[in-house]
Design brief:
With 344 residues, the protein is an alpha/beta fold. It is built from 15 helices and 7 strands. The protein has a 5-stranded mixed β-sheet with strand order 3-2-1-6-7, with helices on both faces. Residues 1-26 are annotated as: Disordered.
């Protein structure tokens, strides 16, 4: 059978399989059913000397905040070793010819076919790889920003995940900043040149992410407490900072505790604190131990976040001067942190 006939046959097989992904908002079960094999996909990872195939939970590609969550899995080896599993790694003498416009070389095609489960989807790191593999092998491929985030993670920990890979990634191959990390820093208004990103900045960005996640998980209790607070004191706290709300909930339970008041978004004003204390005096009491624990947890997360921002400030200060560096410094100042920068 000639190459053209093989491609036509592959296209025919591809056309019979469902190709459109479920719409946003589909449940994890829905995405798992669409992906098949309980959501497990095969990832084709291009390394400096060859290709690796790894199993990965493909449902994670479609969950809310996928970029941030995927990035967080590949920051260190402890988490990454539990989310991707090496299936096969082979060195290619002529890697540049493995995937070309006219198809996939025999060695790589054989490697993929032997590792791929029937109907399993394959994630690839380039749009052209997706087009060529789908056309020549008839295999459904996945390629988008979430897949690229997985590729960033594999590159970030290539020495741990692929110890048999002896060649080093070039600066061009290694993505210095992932979209997930960028999303976290953007949330704080911090922009840093990609070529300035190092392990320390990645670590501090990870700390910010973990603090945010820690607080998000407590939002249901905070939302319930907000309704209780409004009922007891008349204060509308829906737009309050989490620490400010947690402080109010603690104060209505323990009005004798001293708190610092002020105009900061994280603090109660004197008048607001007075209304909360008065609510307690009027007999409105909440489950004190629950909200005391909640306050301690939120205050702890705020403290950790501030220290991470201070560390970022030090790292940015030590970076070479540049427009994005200066912008990052200004944004960090807005968060109340700095390292003795002087105005010029």
């Amino acid at each position: 059978m000639g190459k053209r006939a093989k491609r036509d046959r592959a296209r025919s097989r591809l056309a019979t399989a469902p190709s459109s992904r479920p719409p946003p908002g589909t449940s994890s079960v829905g995405f798992a059913n669409w992906l098949g094999h309980y959501g497990i996909i095969l990832v084709l990872f291009e390394t400096p000397s060859g290709f690796a195939l790894m199993h990965y939970d493909g449902v994670k590609l479609f969950r809310p905040k996928a970029l941030e969550n995927i990035w967080s899995e590949f920051i260190n080896m402890d988490t990454a070793q539990n989310v991707v599993f090496l299936q096969k790694f082979e060195i290619f003498e002529d890697k540049a010819s493995a995937i070309k416009s006219d198809g996939v070389c025999f060695k790589l095609a054989k490697m993929i076919r032997r590792s791929l489960w029937p109907g399993q989807k394959l994630a690839v790191g380039k749009q052209e790889y997706k087009d060529i593999i789908e056309a020549s092998l008839g295999i459904h491929c996945l390629f988008d920003e979430a897949v690229l985030e997985v590729m960033w993670g594999l590159k970030n920990l290539i020495n741990v995940l692929l110890p048999d890979e002896k060649l080093e990634l070039t600066n061009e191959d290694r993505l210095q900043i992932s979209q997930g990390m960028k999303s976290v820093l953007d949330r704080y208004g911090i922009k840093i040149d990609a070529n300035l990103v190092n392990a320390g900045i990645i670590d501090m960005a990870s700390t910010l992410y973990e603090c945010d996640l820690f607080e998000y998980e407590r939002d249901p209790l905070l939302e319930y407490g907000s309704k209780q607070l409004q009922k007891a004191s008349g204060l509308d706290s829906k737009d309050w900072d989490r620490l400010k709300l947690a402080t109010a909930l603690k104060l209505i339970c323990y009005p004798e505790d001293e708190i610092e008041t002020g105009d900061s978004a994280e603090m109660l004003s004197e008048s607001e604190a007075g209304l909360v204390v008065q609510a307690h005096c009027n007999g409105h009491k909440l489950r004190d131990w629950i909200y005391l624990d909640l306050y301690k947890e939120i205050a702890w997360a705020h403290g950790v976040r501030r220290r991470a921002l201070e560390q970022l400030a030090h790292m940015v200060e030590e970076a070479p001067e540049g427009s994005m560096v200066e912008e990052a410094k200004e944004k960090l100042k807005l968060h109340g942190v700095g390292c003795g920068w002087t105005e010029t």
